[in-house]
Amino acid sequence: MTTTLSLVILCALMALMLASKTERAVQIPCHTGEYTKDGECCNECPPGEGVVKKCGATQTVCSQCLDSETYSEDYSHTEQCKPCTECTGLMRMETPCTDSNDAICVCNYNYFFSTMSGTCEPCTVCPVGQGVYIHCDHDHDTVCEECVDSTYSDRESSLDPCLPCTICEEETEVQDAACTPVSDSICRNPLLPPYFSTTPDMDPTLPFTDYPLPDSPDSPDSPLPGGETTTSSAGSPRFLGHGLNENLIPIYCSILAAVVVGLVAYIVFKRWNSCKQNKQAANNRAATNNQMVTPEGEKLHSDSGISVDSQSLHEQQQQQQQQQQQAQAEVQAQPSHSHTPEQIEVRVDSGSQPDSAPPEV
């Protein structure tokens, strides 16, 4: 009875487990719609990874994409890593390629992508009398507008907008020319000399030397209080202060070059002088080592005794031995003369003194 009851309970538990698995299978749908042979839903590779082995007998196998070389943007159980797009020609890279996003290429600067031609085309340049309303970008062309309401544009440009016209000061200036869409207004101060103009149309590139000097007796030019020079000519008046500054630039460059050359020459001279001194010192040391120094013994006679150094004493001993040998040779060579030992010792001690007659006994 107990055994039968245990089998019933075990069967009930198994039925509950099977029912739970079936319920979970129904509640969790398979997004890929494909299953392995074991009935498992095939996994998807996330962005940044591509499929190496597709789902079938076994589960899907994914691999990491190489940054800046391959990419994968979407979840997939079938797609592999794709190669990154390369920007060539008139295209430039706006966003680099990563493992999960492809590179984004746009048109180069001063070009825009035309949807009609499907290529990059140069940006439109606004003509004189028109200014830039919207600047050109990689996805749209320049938008120009007419210069109105006291604005003007006196040059062609794809960057500059319409500029506001100059307003003459009512108390000190008069207007010689009104502002137009293609030119600015011209103002003049009647209190200034006629050859001076306050118009912004000044050419700073005119050379200073093309005009007579202010101190010339025949020249109508004169310096202004600020030290700036002006001139009157047949054409439009010009301001010469900028030309003078530009002429000073070559002078500054020449002075700087002279300083650099002098510094280099000084360094070269110091190095040459140092090498010369080192060479002379080496020659002096060599000459000192090669010089033969002959030491001389000093013999000092006094009431207290004799003082000599070791080298001189050694030489004196050698000299005495030579003198003794010489005296013995002379004695042997002259047997007729009789010399006592005292006389020989006196001869040896006397050194180079001549022989004296023996004393009488």
From TrEMBL:
Q: Name one GO biological process term.
A: apoptotic process
TNFR-Cys-type repeats, residues? 29-62, 64-105, 106-144, 146-187
Which Gene Ontology MF annotations are present? coreceptor activity; death receptor activity; nerve growth factor binding
Q: Which GO terms describe its cellular component?
A: cell surface; plasma membrane
- UniProt biased composition (Low complexity): 282-291, 315-334
Keywords from UniProt, A to Z, are:
Apoptosis, Cell membrane, Disulfide bond, Glycoprotein, Membrane, Receptor, Signal, Transmembrane, Transmembrane helix
Domain of life here?
Answer: Eukaryota
Q: How does it sit in the membrane?
A: Single-pass membrane protein
**Domain TNFR-Cys as annotated: residue spans:** 29-62, 64-105, 106-144, 146-187
InterPro entries for this protein: Neurotrophin_rcpt-DD, TNFR/NGFR_Cys_rich_reg, TNFR16_TM, TNFR_16, TNFRSF16_N
Tell me the segments the record calls region Disordered: 206-238, 282-361
Q: Where is the composition biased (Basic and acidic residues)?
A: 339-348
Ranges annotated as biased composition (Polar residues): 304-314
Pfam families per the UniProt record, alphabetical: TNFR_16_TM, TNFR_c6
Location of the protein in the cell? Cell membrane
Q: Where is the composition biased (Pro residues)?
A: 214-223
Q: Which residues cross the membrane?
A: 249-269
Provide the leader sequence positions. 1-19
Q: Has the keyword Cell membrane been applied to this entry?
A: yes
Q: List the disulfide bonds.
A: C42-C55, C84-C97, C87-C105, C123-C136, C126-C144, C147-C162
Q: Does the keyword NAD apply?
A: no
- Annotated protein name in UniProt: Tumor necrosis factor receptor superfamily member 16
Organism of provenance = Scomber scombrus
Organismal lineage: Eukaryota, Metazoa, Chordata, Craniata, Vertebrata
